[in-house]
Amino acid sequence: MSDRLPPLTALRAFEAAARHLSFQDAAAELSVTPAALSFQIKSLETHLGAPLFHRLNRRVELTEAGQALTAPASEGFQTLAAGWRAAKRTLDSGLLTITAGPAFTAKWLAPRLFDFAQRHPEIELRFAATLKMLDFATDDIDIAIRFGPGDEGRDAGLHLALTIEEWVTPMMHPDLAAHYPTPASLTEAPIIFDDSHAFLRNSVGWEDWFRACGVAADDLHGPRFSQADHAIDAAQSGAGVVLGRVSLAESALRHGQLVAPYDVALVPRAGFRVLCPEGAQTRPGTRAFLDWLAVEVRRMDDHRAGRRMIDAGALEA
């Protein structure tokens, strides 16, 4: 039996019919007549020397040979489609698609986009704000900003363009600061909980921060938010004190809408990784965004002045 591959059009007809288990629906998807699709599948069966479908009265079923071909054919066309999209992206330096979490997109990226747009009017940015781990090939992503402890397996084949160190410290509306001059006095304050990073093993919380300050705080209560930006918004409104992430609160701190009056800050076991496919970092649009991002990240260092940065991992010792 020859291993020579059959025509691609015949394989495409088979893949659609196998997915729908209907010649009519497959023909509609491919914009051909059912007769034309049936001819392509018959030619494929002739090439194979065996039927791929059982033709019943009003439906079709896959034969054993058809079942063996279905998954590889589907995966093959998905790979081809991803490769085609990747090839097109190399030619389109004017469009850049970035994925990041909803909170980081809203609180860090969005307030800065006007500056980037002014500097690079030739680049159109698109954002996929999601906590889902999007795939560079199948989801048409150019740059991913991911939060976590790092994953060598998932990051394999990707270029680590930049890391953004995260740190947390209590943050509150300026009007509250005078009422809570010390970490110990903060045990009497209305506490806001940010549970957005609870999915991380050994995540950092209020108990860790008070322990770093040498303050006993065993019975803390307050509203809990599953989204970090919502917790920041609540603190900004004066509702209480949040153990805020500098990345998300940076704009509010810079504009005086929040203050972080204590010198103790914790560096959690997770941070941001800015990733792109290996080799893509040299493309003009990607390079422009990465260079701009690095400058903006360095500006956050202003908020570190005078603080004691404590590695959260050291608290476990």
From TrEMBL:
Tagged with keyword Transcription regulation? yes
Query: Could you tell me which InterPro entries the record lists for this protein?
Result: LysR-type_TF_proteobact-type, LysR_HTH_N, LysR_subst-bd, WH-like_DNA-bd_sf, WH_DNA-bd_sf
Q: Does the keyword Transcription apply?
A: yes
Highest taxon, organism lineage: Bacteria
Please name the GO terms of the biological process aspect recorded for this protein, alphabetically. DNA-templated transcription
Please name the GO terms that the record assigns under molecular function: DNA-binding transcription factor activity; sequence-specific DNA binding
Q: What are the entry keywords?
A: DNA-binding, Transcription, Transcription regulation
Concerning SUPFAM superfamilies, the annotation shows: Periplasmic binding protein-like II, Winged helix' DNA-binding domain
Protein name stated in the entry: LysR family glycine cleavage system transcriptional activator
